[in-house]
Specification:
Layout (H helix, E strand, L loop, with lengths): L8 H17 L10 E7 L1 E10 L5 E3 L3 E7 L2 E11 L7 E14 L4 E8 L19 E11 L6 E6 L1 H8 L8 E9 L6 E6 L10 E10 L2
Antiparallel strand pairs: 1-12, 2-3, 2-5, 4-5, 4-11, 5-10, 6-9, 6-11, 6-12, 7-8, 7-10
Length: 219
């Protein structure tokens, strides 16, 4: 069960300062330290996203809507970045990546595979050829198959626990580094793709990354 969040600016400042001091002291994980136990943290959305098409490798950045899937043989890959306030090596209990599907083209199966970017601190996305697919992927990945769209704004969740753990375990990962998650097509029927709300969407329904970890103050 999620402990109570800080309720005011002063309390929030104190909470973040306590957390910063805690992770900097390098207290071992998996130990009940009284005030420090576990909670769900929401990673900070950076505002940076992009998608890339396989035909020509064109990349568009800072999108209101991101495309992923198979548009009649032209497969699309979407990429989304976050800032993660965790210390290197933090044990991850669970990480959920939520994307808001605002539309789907085609009535057949939409199958996507989520990778992380295998980097300590990712570079910003650029509108250059193959800027997304040229990036190194994590070994860990997770699949989401037969994605449907019931209408309206509908969230799909990807279990990215192993992906986030692999990134955080990198020797040069550090508190406040940028991480990236990428949605690749994974055998969708030709002509079937989805459109997901990006960071720049004014509806407030952008992607969300929630991480449950042991390295946080408990109440």
């Amino acid at each position: 069960m999620r402990p109570p969040w800080p309720t005011g600016i002063i309390e929030l400042d104190t909470w973040l300062l306590d957390y910063w001091n805690f992770v900097q002291r390098g207290v071992p994980a998996g130990v009940d330290h009284g005030r420090y136990k576990h909670v769900e943290l929401e990673a900070v959305r950076t505002g940076y996203n992009a998608h890339e098409e396989s035909i020509g490798g064109g990349v568009a950045i800072d999108r209101v809507l991101l495309t992923a899937g198979n548009a009649a043989g032209n497969t699309w890959t979407a990429a989304i970045s976050f800032i993660l306030y965790l210390a290197q090596g933090t044990p991850i209990n669970y990480a959920g990546f939520f994307v808001c599907l605002s539309g789907k083209v085609g009535s057949d199966d939409l199958n996507l595979r989520c990778y992380g970017e295998d980097a300590d601190n990712i570079a910003a996305y650029q509108a250059t050829t193959n800027n997304i697919t040229n990036r190194t992927k994590t070994t860990a990945y997770t699949d989401k198959n037969e994605i449907d769209w019931p209408g309206g704004s509908y969230y799909e969740e990807f279990d990215v626990t192993d992906i986030i753990q692999e990134i955080v375990n990198r020797s040069n990962f550090d508190f406040g580094h940028h991480i990236g998650l990428m949605l690749y097509d994974n055998g969708s029927t030709s002509g079937t793709y989805g459109q997901f709300r990006g960071h720049e969407n004014t509806s407030g329904k952008g992607p969300v990354l929630m991480v449950n970890t042991d390295f946080v103050k408990s109440e």
